[in-house]
Amino acid sequence: MEELREMLTSIDLENLLKIFDIQIGLGVLVFFIIFKSLFAKILIKIYYKLTKNKKNPKDSIMYKPLNFFFLLLGIFLMINISLQSSKRLILISNAVFQTIVVYYITKAIATLITEESKVYKKFFKSENKAINKFTCKILRGILWIISFVFVVKKIFGWDIDFGGIGTLVTGLGIGSAAIALAAQDLVKGMLSGATILTDKPFVIGDWIEVGEFQGSVIDITFRSTRIKAANNTVITIPNSTITSTSVINWNRLTSRRFDCVLNLSLETPSEKVRKVVKEIKLVLQNNPEVIKETVEVNVNAISSCSTDIKIFLYVRQSEYVKFLKAQQDILCSLLFLVEKENIDLAYPTQTLYVREGKGESEE
């Protein structure tokens, strides 16, 4: 017994306890590494059961983040169990883990703030897609700002002195002026974006023309609007530019104008000209894509090389691609009528007169 007592007193019991705590901590970490996927599936299944969703949990966008979260939870518990004597490390690990928890909660809420989510549709749904996108971005931005302030002030205990920041910026001289100008442009862009959303000169999906640029609107953000041009390039236009210039919205058209001049050869008899004018008008009025009441076909002028027939009408198709198809059908029908009547189309000609004897020529 005396020998056993001597052995126990010689062994550092505190070190033994530390080793035991480390083993328990490592065991907890291994446990979470093995079962993290299972825990993730259980949570997603519970959520799917509440929302009556029948998808595979592995297909959820939250499956991998939850796996990573449970791995971090295992590391956090391991540190707290294994390093109980080191209060500083425990405080740091607690702050880091709480920050990660806030991040994942914020991210989960942010995924619900979309145009298609049921939560958003219940409280903020609008018929305007651009307003929906704009509102969602503002709400997500506010959410992340609140989370950041919460982490800084509540978890890390840092006090944000906005007054001190303002004093510092004021004292920067030229730098503060540059910041003020940048902020002015930012505010101007945001106000222009709000103007676009309230006035609705266009919405997402409209084909617009702004200055030298034209294309289909694909997105409206705080400070700019993105359009996709006909060659599939994406053009970003500042909202301040859009509100300060003329915007043509081709989607607001109910019809498109078509006009052309048919140049007949001067050798065409007047009777044939009259006949072809009547036939052209009749064919165009019977075209289902043409608005019948708008058709105008008249002899417009007689030039030095042709008799000009002016054709003017409106096509029902306002969409550009469909309009091109209707325009092609009209032009082909005009060519068919000219060929049917054996009428030659005029082309620019030039006559050269030569004066003999002096070697001079006149044109």
Write the layout of secondary structure elements.
Elements: H1 2-10, H2 13-51, H3 63-82, H4 87-112, H5 118-123, H6 129-155, H7 162-170, H8 174-199, E1 207-210, E2 213-220, E3 224-228, E4 234-238, H9 239-243, E5 247-249, E6 256-265, H10 270-285, E7 296-302, E8 306-315, H11 320-340, E9 353-355, E10 360-362
Antiparallel strand pairs: 1-2, 1-5, 2-3, 3-4, 6-8, 7-8, 9-10
The largest β sheet comes out as: 5 strands, antiparallel
- Sequence of secondary-structure elements: HHHHHHHHEEEEHEEHEEHEE
What's the helical proportion of residues? 55-70%
| Rg estimate, integer Å | 38 Å
Strand percentage lies at: 15-25%
User: What count of structural domains?
Assistant: 3
Number of helices: 11
Given helix and strand content, the structural type is alpha+beta
What are the segments in which pLDDT stays under 50 over at least 5 consecutive residues?
162-169
For the biggest β-sheet, the strand order reads: 4-3-2-1-5
Q: What is the overall silhouette?
A: elongated
Give the strand tally: 10
What is the residue-mean pLDDT, rounded to a whole number?
Answer: 77
Distance between the termini: 137 Å
Characterize the structure shown.
The chain has 363 residues and is an alpha+beta fold. It has helices at 2-10, 13-51, 63-82, 87-112, 118-123, 129-155, 162-170, 174-199, 239-243, 270-285, 320-340, and strands at residues 207-210, 213-220, 224-228, 234-238, 247-249, 256-265, 296-302, 306-315, 353-355, 360-362. The strands form 3 sheets. Strands 4-3-2-1-5 form a 5-stranded antiparallel sheet. A 3-stranded antiparallel sheet has the order 6-8-7. Strand 7 (296-302) and strand 8 form a beta hairpin. Helix 2 (13-51) packs antiparallel against helix 3 (63-82). The longest helix is centred in the N-terminal third of the chain and has 39 residues, at 13-51. The protein is elongated, with a radius of gyration of 38 Å.
